[in-house]
Amino acid sequence: MTKRHGATKAAMLRTIPSLSRCSQRELATIGAAGDEIVLPAGRVLMAEGERGDEAFLIVEGSAEVKVAGETVAEVGPGDFVGEMALLERRPRTATVVATSPLRVLAIGARRFPGLLDLPGVAWAVSRALAERLRLADSVRVPVAV
Fold first, then answer.
1. Residue 52, CA atoms < 13 Å, CB-side half-sphere
2. pLDDT, tens digit, for every residue of 89-142?
3. Domain 6-139 belongs to what architecture?
4. Torsion on CA atoms 83, 77, 69, 86, rounded to nearest 10
5. What is the pTM of this model?
6. 13 and 112 Cβ atoms separated by less than 8 Å
């Protein structure tokens, strides 16, 4: 696991389109809240059925979201995964597997709810939730990634 200073992370986060509504202060807050993790392609970031105590913000790379072993979506820079199961304190209903080298910020259960008070983060998460509702409807299962 590699850790970066919050200001450096903020500069890295500024390049992510879905976080474009975040202010410089919000980006610095997100950067300071998370620990950077680097995973190789093929590695599981989070598994279906795990409770977990972190949400993940994908900074670089891509991953597949799998439900019952089938790929239902792809996620990439700017996508949050694991946050709904974390907030609702229930097991995750999807597995997320890196399809390329992946750089993520792991944000713990104590820090993540505070990030939702930031307008730019709330917008990014609500956009993702709307997409997941469409996805869940199409695969007929809840997708709490």
1. 29
2. 889 989 999 999 999 999 999 999 898 899 988 888 887 777 777 766 665 555
3. Sandwich (2.60)
4. -10
5. 0.81
6. no
The HSE-up count of residue 58 (CA atoms within 13 Å, CB side) is 30
For 125, residues 6+ apart whose C-beta sits below 8 A from its C-beta are: 80, 83, 116
> Which residues make Cβ contacts (< 8 Å) with residue 98, sequence separation at least 6?
39, 40, 41, 42, 43, 44, 45, 61, 62, 63
> Which helix (H) or strand (E) element contains residue 72?
strand 70-75
Domain ranges of the chain: 6-139
